Structure formats: structure tokens, C-alpha cells
From TrEMBL:
UniProtKB keywords: DNA-binding, Transcription, Transcription regulation
Pfam families: MarR_2
Protein name stated in the entry: Transcriptional regulator
Keyword Transcription regulation annotated: yes
Lineage: Bacteria, Fusobacteriati, Fusobacteriota, Fusobacteriia, Fusobacteriales
InterPro entries cross-referenced by the UniProt entry: HTH_MarR-typ, WH-like_DNA-bd_sf, WH_DNA-bd_sf
GO molecular function: DNA binding; DNA-binding transcription factor activity
Domain HTH marR-type: 1-139
């Protein structure tokens, strides 16, 4: 087995998973959202629907400028609202709207279907080994 194409394989899996998510969103009539918005929504769901912009960036491991663009789009689509913190005007607080919370069930369904597809044919032991190896690769890049 060729081991020198690992990054290409990971990239291909990322692309295929993004295509899967975008198709599922379209099939469910969800307009405007794309796979990358799921990162922000997932963070919000995991944190009771309210976070700062910096908190989201730290939670998902992306630059604040990237998160700002995604949050602005989510706000335009009605999934979140943004406002300056009452304690510190430099801090932007992001809150899920009713529409954001209502989307949670669809989000969970698509996530479950993506995981089911990802792990088709895997044993529980294989899943654990795979995750351990992927975390090891990620750690290698964090030590630079």
C-alpha cells in the first residue's frame, strides 16, 4: 500500500464528505447553508447557543477572520444574531436564533448519516485505531 499519498487521501475524504453534506442540505430544502457552516453551528449547539467570536474560533481551531465571515453569513441567513457585549464593547457575542435551534434536528440527522457512511464496514476497534492515528497526525501539525 502506498503511504506517500496520505494527505491526498485525507483531502479527498474531506471533499467527498463536503459534497455529501451539501447534497443532503439541498435534498432537505435547506438553502444558503454549506458544509463549512456546520463547524460554527456545532460549536454553538455544544455551548448552549451562545459564544463569543473568539470563543468560536478557539473551539473550532480556525482564524477569527474565517469565523467572522461564516458568522456574518449565518446571521444573514437568520441562524444566529450578533451583538456587542454589554461588559466589553470589543467582544462580539453570537447567539443562536429560533431558526438556528430549529435546524438542530436536521443537523443531527445529516451528521449521523455522514458518520454511518464514513464507518460502513468498520469494526469498533478499527474506528478507535483510525481516530487515534488521525489525532496523532493532527498533533504533528500543532507542534510546529
Amino acid at each position: 500500500m502506498r503511504t506517500d499519498v496520505v494527505i491526498g487521501v485525507i483531502s479527498n475524504i474531506r471533499e467527498k464528505s463536503a459534497q455529501f453534506i451539501n447534497k443532503e442540505l439541498k435534498d432537505r430544502g435547506v438553502e444558503g447553508l454549506i458544509n463549512s457552516h456546520g463547524t460554527v453551528l456545532s460549536a454553538m449547539y455544544d455551548n448552549d447557543g451562545k459564544m463569543t467570536m473568539n470563543g468560536i474560533a478557539r473551539f473550532v481551531g480556525k482564524r477569527k477572520s474565517t469565523i467572522t465571515d461564516m458568522v456574518k453569513k449565518l446571521e444573514k441567513l437568520g441562524y444566529v444574531s450578533r451583538e456587542k457585549s454589554k461588559e466589553d464593547a470589543r467582544v462580539i457575542e453570537v447567539t443562536l436564533t429560533e431558526k438556528g435551534w430549529e435546524f438542530r434536528d436536521i443537523f443531527k440527522e445529516i451528521s449521523r448519516e455522514l458518520l454511518d457512511k464514513t464507518y460502513t464496514g468498520f469494526t469498533e476497534d478499527e474506528k478507535e485505531v483510525l481516530m487515534g492515528l488521525l489525532f496523532k497526525i493532527r498533533k504533528n501539525f500543532r507542534e510546529e
